[in-house]
Amino acid sequence: MSEVLDAPVDAPQPDRLKAGGDGGNLLAIHLMGLLLTLVTLGIYRFWWRTNVRRYLWSSLSYKGDPFEYTGRGLELFVGFLIVLVLVVAPLMGVYFLGYYLLKSGDLLLGGTIMGFSYLIMFGLFGAAIYRVMTYRLSRTKWRGIRAALGGSAFRYTGLYMLSLLLQALTLSLATPFVTIMVYRYILNNVWFGSGRLTFDAEWKPLFKYYVVPGILRLAALAVIGVAIYQMTRASGQGDAAERAAALNGLGYIGAGLLLLLAAKIAMYWYWAAVIRTLVAGMEFEGVRFSAPVTGGKYAGFMIVNFLLVVFTQYIAYPWVQLRILRFVAGILEIRGEPDFARISQNTALQPRFGEGLGEAFL
Amino acid sequence: MNRSYQATLYDGHSAAGRVCAALPADGALEIHFDDSTSTAWPYATLTLISDEGDGNRVVLAPGPKSGERLTVAGPGVFRVMLAAVPSLRDQQPTRGYRMAALTAGAIVAVLALAWAGYPLIKDGLAAVLPASWSDRIGAEMVNDEAMFEKPCTGAAGIAALNDLAGRLSRYAGMREPITVHVRSSDTVNAFAATGGHIAVLDGLIQQAATPDEVAGVLAHEIGHVKHRHPLKRLIDVAGIQLIVTGISGDVGAVGTTVLMLNYGRKDEAQADRTALDLLDHAGIKANGLADFFDRMAAKRKNRLDITGFLRTHPPLAERSAMMRDHKSPAAPRPALTDRQWRDVRAVCAAEKAGSSSAKDAPEADK
User: Fold this and answer.
1) Is B57 on the interface with A (CB under 8 A)?
2) ipTM confidence score
3) Would you say B309 and B201 are in contact if contact means Cβ atoms under 8 Å apart?
4) Taking a C-beta distance cutoff of 8 angstroms, is the pair A21, B52 a contact?
5) Domain of residue B31, residue span
6) pTM of the predicted model, to two decimals?
7) Nearest-CA distance from A4 to chain B in Å?
8) How far is B190 from chain A (nearest CA, A)?
9) Segment A177-182 long-range contacts (CB within 8 Å, at least 24 positions apart)
10) DSSP assignment of B240-251, as one string?
């Protein structure tokens, strides 16, 4: 009978990342960072963040070699200053110009300028997401070889705006399509040295996981919409009518919030399916990946993280960060091994400064 | 003699490593390859990349800028490397006590510096900020409709109050002229803002029994202006705002909260002393302010919901006593003529009429 228990020959044990790290040490880094940030009126936070990342990256290893974060606090600080001067200040200028025109009675021009500055802000939000990912990957090393994110933040911004538009037009039902569209762009631009990650997946199989949260979201939207409609209709019809409508509306809004909470929880099953799909769709130099995580496991993981942070007033935050590493190491299965001799340093993709846009808009 | 450890060298160009043996020798880490070639990394520039893995694995580089990486593995290898190269300890991101001590030292130093230096910085800043700037801010502050309701437009009353303010401030040696605004709020209070702007709320005018009382309150607020208390308070709040913004990344408004903050006892006493001085010079009896304080204090005993001047100003009895001890001019002159006093009482008449109801009508004058 013992042969039955042996693992089949064609399914070798997958490789895994290994997560370590000590919550107490990480807490010390956080406390020191917090104190110095207070003392330096906030400026130290870039170095704080850098120290934390250095610790987290090196707590994760693969094949006995730890990851390495090579970013510097100064890069983040300079990036922040650059964005402050070149992006935030001009944008504020444009915004207040619009505001001023609007207030002085030029509704059309003022409104256009303000709308335009809001549009730019949305766009910069998308660009910021991509710039942050680009910076972090470029400062990630393993075995002395840098990772990188190619592509362009500009094109990503276009995709991001498009995805917002699609979501709005379809009342968020396009979410599975948008998820795959956006991650297809990101993941196909991930590099490790001279090796490039490729990714492909279908969005349709994801849709069934979005049905429940999608319906819950729409229901929440409808209920809150009804409440607002009733309250606006009652306004100006006397105190008694307004009070009754307000009470009634509060009930509707409470129900709406409950529905949103239910949607948020149902989304954990969706995101677990997304993780499975994204990871299974990736390939790197002949290496395939899988992440067989169930919705229940992912929901449990996220809810416990949330409770840990809330009930300890952030004291447990370092442990949550390490829990995330352990979770990733626990679910990610790596099959096969690239020819490491063929992977060399990629000298082309190297941003110079930090995450200023992210600092300003995320 | 140290033992050697199993290691892998990555040259920074290829992800393929070279298996080797790392030997902590004198002055340098020797790296021996299978083909019996070797290299050595001097301890002086040896750089710690990672010491995770329970001390059983350490990643090193020959220098801070080098792309080469050496992963050394073996039981207790980090302790052995530390013994050979004590300076590696300084390159660890944490290792608590040293950093904690440094941090605590830095905090104490900065706090001490701030404690000693801040008042000087504040006074300097208050003196150099352009007058046009504090004038604009002050006008903004007293114009908050949400807090003080509508501006009152009784032209004769406003003129009378500004005349009185001019009479009081003539001897104060002020850099900016005083501008008195009246707002239709029922709250019994008056505020000094930056740039010489003073807001008197109609509630205070209606509660005052004599022009001398209004003159006393006005003189007190002019005292605040003379000593630049509003500007200094604004700098305080802006500083706190800066700190909060720096830490949280949130940008909020400094706004009119500045006006609602209590001045310290020292500032109030200073404003009181100046007020007495100004009243003397203008030939107005100092009892006005004391009378006002006393009646307000009596009112506070009866009613718990008194807001305004009492809440934002410190205990009244001692201040009232100080005013009564003060020797007023032998032949005092009235603060306002009867005609002016009537105009001042009616300064918000138009606004009150607009906002309806008889409860806002002035109380019968004694």
Assistant:
1) yes
2) 0.83
3) no
4) yes
5) 5-91
6) 0.66
7) 36
8) 30
9) A177/A203, A179/A203, A179/A206, A179/A274, A180/A206, A180/A277
10) HHHHHHHHH---
Residues B207, B270 share a domain: yes
Q: Quick check: B366 pLDDT over 60?
A: no
Q: Which residues of A touch B5 (CB under 8 A)?
A: none
Domain boundary among B65, B91, B117: B91
List chain A residues with CB under 8 Å of B12: 144-145, 345
Q: How does A181-191 read in b/e, with b if 16+ C-beta sit within 10 Å? A: ebbbbbbebbb
**Does A28 touch chain B if contact means CB atoms closer than 8 Å?**
yes
Nearest to B246 by CA among A71, A310, A36, A78: A36
Chain A residues with CB under 8 Å of B100 CB are: 28, 32
State how far residue A302 is from chain B, nearest Cα, in angstroms: 25
Choosing from B91, B118, B142, the residue where a domain stops is B91
Are B63 and B147 within one domain?
Answer: no
Could you tell me if B85 and B136 lie in one domain?
no
- CA dist., res. B208 & res. B222, Å (int): 18
* Most confidently predicted of A109-113, A225-229, B67-71: B67-71
Residues of A whose CB is below 8 A from B14: 145, 340-341, 343-345
Note whether B100 contacts A29, CB cutoff 8 Å: no
